[in-house]
Amino acid sequence: MKVLIADKFPEQYIKKLEEAGIEVIYNPNLGEKDLPEAAREVDCLVVRSTVVSAETIEKSLNLNLIVRAGAGVNNINIPAANKKGIYVANCPGKNAIAVAELAIGLMIACDRRIPNNVIDFREGKWNKAEYSKAKGLHGRTLAIVGYGHIGKEVAKRAQALGMNIYAKDISRIEGYGVKDFSEFDKVLPIADVVSVHLPSTPETKGLFNEKMFNMMKDGAIFINTSRADVVDEDALIKAVKEKNLRVGLDVFKDEPEDKKGSVSSKLQKLENVYVTHHIGASTEQAQNAVAEETVNIILGYIKSGVIAHWVNKAKAPDTHYQLVVKHYDKPGVLASVLDIIKDGDINIEEIENIIFDGGLVACCTMKLKAPLSNEMLEKIRENPNVITYSHVMLD
Ligand SMILES: NC(=O)c1ccc[n+]([C@@H]2O[C@H](COP(=O)([O-])OP(=O)(O)OC[C@H]3O[C@@H](n4cnc5c(N)ncnc54)[C@H](O)[C@@H]3O)[C@@H](O)[C@H]2O)c1
Ligand SMILES: O=C(O)[C@H](O)COP(=O)(O)O
């Protein structure tokens, strides 16, 4: 197996792959444009934020697995991967602590205006009078939007700071001391801090727009360490100017893909907007945890054929019927059942054959698009190597 790692990755985990007999090509300086050529002959591609375009996927000859050494998979062209049956996996939760630490850091930085303090100090200006004005976070209300791995880690830390915590998610909110808020118009007007931890999806794109910022308190703190496209940047800039929002961002519109270079953004002109360099996941603790998970995914796949954290598996396959056949585990038995189903022009969407202890009997579960006819079922029943079967309609 040949693995290309196209982003920064800790050395000790490269060694673990090599020790397992894998050929590793490590080139952390590759960008989106280099990948079509660089990934052409590899079996597995590991990336952090480097964009894996449709071109990279289409030109690849052997690519079978793309691992996102991180959480968000929006840098990978998943529809193109689906067309070629290439697995995409990620490392959920492995960098959550690091992002939560940064989100809390940005909250404190916004409340105390730490970057402005530092800039003035470096310029020889002393302004205790101005920078002594801060609200403090204790007793303030925090709204966490997206209560997944990172949202939960933020909540834990905010609890230690004595904040009053609300959270919103499409899943149920569970957790001691965290109140579920279903409606933005109930929480945004009372929140002193809003921290966003949503994935980039068609539903979340542009969620934080003018209407949402209008609901927020004057002078509130807005933190986004998730993805830039969750926020309408022009609406955010308007709110900063008109409502004195203080803002901490780890992600922003047109963020450079390169790991080093120049950067230009409308946000640079705003005194109370602090932007970090998409470093949420970039602590040693998080990078080691992510790398360990990446190695587990690759080695697990080699050993068992199972992909952990497989993100492009069909959520709800188009199956309406299930056939379970318990049969003697002999060559040809299953093939004869499959022939009957094929002759009926029925597609099997999913199949699993599990063997009983001792190896005499196996049980095969098939998920089907259409039902088998009585005639087909009769043929299966007539097979002396079929012990029992059940054929049911699924909900
Ligand atoms: N700045 C960084 O370096 C950095 C690092 C890691 C992750 N991220 C970003 O943060 C995002 C969140 O990461 P995570 O590890 O917490 O992911 P996660 O999947 O554990 O959590 C996301 C949560 O959002 C919820 N959600 C999805 N759509 C929603 C909607 N429309 N409304 C309400 N809730 C919704 C999900 O149910 C889930 O609980 C990632 O998708 C990634 O884009 C950024
Ligand atoms: O989704 C993620 O995991 C983060 O955005 C981290 O990105 P990075 O791996 O490029 O730091």
UniProtKB/TrEMBL annotation:
GO process terms (BP): L-serine biosynthetic process
TM spans, by residue? none
Stored CDD domains: PGDH_4 (cd12173)
The main enzyme category here is oxidoreductase
Q: Which UniProt keywords apply?
A: Amino-acid biosynthesis, NAD, Oxidoreductase, Serine biosynthesis
* InterPro entries for the chain: ACT-like_dom_sf, ACT_dom, D-2-hydroxyacid_DH, D-isomer_2_OHA_DH_cat_dom, D-isomer_DH_CS, D-isomer_DH_NAD-bd, NAD(P)-bd_dom_sf
Enzyme Commission number(s) of this protein? 1.1.1.399, 1.1.1.95
**Any one GO molecular function term:** phosphoglycerate dehydrogenase activity
Q: Name one Pfam family in it.
A: 2-Hacid_dh
Reaction(s) catalysed by this chain, per the record, are: (2R)-3-phosphoglycerate + NAD(+) = 3-phosphooxypyruvate + NADH + H(+); (R)-2-hydroxyglutarate + NAD(+) = 2-oxoglutarate + NADH + H(+)
- Domain annotation ACT: ranges: 322-394
Q: In which pathway does it act?
A: Amino-acid biosynthesis; L-serine biosynthesis; L-serine from 3-phospho-D-glycerate: step 1/3
Instruction: Look up keyword Chaperone and say if it applies.
Output: no
What job does this protein perform?
Catalyzes the reversible oxidation of 3-phospho-D-glycerate to 3-phosphonooxypyruvate, the first step of the phosphorylated L-serine biosynthesis pathway. Also catalyzes the reversible oxidation of 2-hydroxyglutarate to 2-oxoglutarate.
- Would you identify the family this protein belongs to, as annotated? Belongs to the D-isomer specific 2-hydroxyacid dehydrogenase family.
Spell out the protein name for this chain. D-3-phosphoglycerate dehydrogenase
